[in-house]
Design goal:
Blueprint: H1 2-27, E1 34-35, E2 38-39, H2 42-46, H3 52-76, E3 80-83, H4 99-109, E4 122-128, E5 137-142, E6 145-151, E7 157-161, E8 176-178, E9 181-183, E10 190-192, E11 198-200, E12 218-221, E13 224-229, H5 244-247, E14 251-261, H6 275-281, E15 303-313, E16 321-332, E17 335-336, E18 342-349, E19 353-360, E20 364-376, E21 379-389, H7 395-415, H8 431-440
Parallel strand pairs: 3-14
Antiparallel strand pairs: 1-2, 4-13, 5-6, 6-7, 8-9, 9-10, 10-11, 12-13, 14-21, 15-16, 16-17, 16-18, 18-19, 19-20, 20-21
Helix pairs in contact: 1-3
Length: about 450
Amino acid sequence: MENSSNTLLVKVAAVVVISITAALVMHVQDPSDTVLGVGYPELWRRTGLAGAPARAATCILAGVLLLTLGWLYRLLFAPLELLRSPDEVGYIAEDGRTRAQAANDVRRRRKTGELPPVYPNGWYRVLDSHMLERGDVKNVTVLGEQVAVFRGLEGKAYVVDAYCPHLGANLAVGGRVVGDCIECPFHGWQFRGEDGKCIRIPYAEKVPEFAKVRCWPSCEINGQILVWFHCDGDEPGWRVPEQREITQGVWVYRGRTEHFINAHIEEIPENAADIAHLAHLHTPGIVSGVDLRYTNSKTWEFVRHDWKVEWKPETEPNKHCSQMLVKHALTVFGRRWPLLDLDVVARQVGPGIVFLLFDHSFLGHGVIMHCVTPVEPLLQCVSHTIFYQSSIPPLVPKFILRAECIQFERDVMIWNNKKYISKPMLVKEDSAIQKHRRWFSQFYSENSPRLRYQHDTMDF
């Protein structure tokens, strides 16, 4: 509540400043007018800025002031939202090609290797809660399926198959919310969000018992809407833990990033156990950027990140969880800056959700929720949503999220171009990778869907 009051106060102050500035601009008629009781300088008359030119100059200055105020507000108070397109990160466009052309070439020619099943059993994020208001309907692709995500007028979120079983219209494209139901835009059939059952057909005397749409098991927790997937239709085997600081408003939303990665889902969490890659890929400072051709440039080698990492699976009753313990240190010109030492506990829950918990004596406390959701067999939507201590200036968590984004995009360039190797050539120091693969295998079942190629077109 305190943070909401502070945010409201800032917004009210911004509106007042903008209103006063606009009023002053509207009342400027010539240099004999006054601004806040002070006459315009005599220099304006001598240089010919009296009259219309003066008003034009004042308008330009006021416009610059408003733009500056807007930029400062976004920098200091607004959440950071950085949404990358599938072609924007991880590809090298050369020889006059666009990034989209380079990405398509890589996708078409890259060898995939002998892949595990493409959709593990578990919970997956579909949307952040604030993206779905009461009465809203969203069309989302998840696990190769089109789903309609909607929020009933009483506030509960539901996830159902997008296609109406009547004649196949997409419920999320033109459909509307009626109470706790979604209405088909084609013929007005209404399906209940709780169980998918059709409860009304406007032109029919009776609704058939078999008239229903598939309803996905879902929950809303930690500011996110999640769905449960199991290839055999089994009920959820575990719950996603609640982060009470988020529920109680102690930690507030400070932004999110979103990336699309062309790789198998298992490649992404496996990074937690690949300890050796941190020293090679993530030691260069974030100032050296994300293009791996230049991250080791001598220009920026005075800034270095040091990492100490340990990965381990948890035991019953939390065998679906694992932890990566990270100790980060920053050195500048060879000198360590203890103020920026950071301890992070990355707790993975199932195949698609990771809690990155930050604990710092000066920078405060918070969490980045790292979520991986399969869109298609080899296309993953990865989001990082940060909630942070409300008493800490928003600039701090926004910087942390931006730094995390830079380091993450270095991995994206690897993932988008690599081949999955089912039997990798490992050394003793890579033992955690095999342990991680054994741990991750629990999310596959005998009937878990696998990628099947058509040998004539290579399309899946």
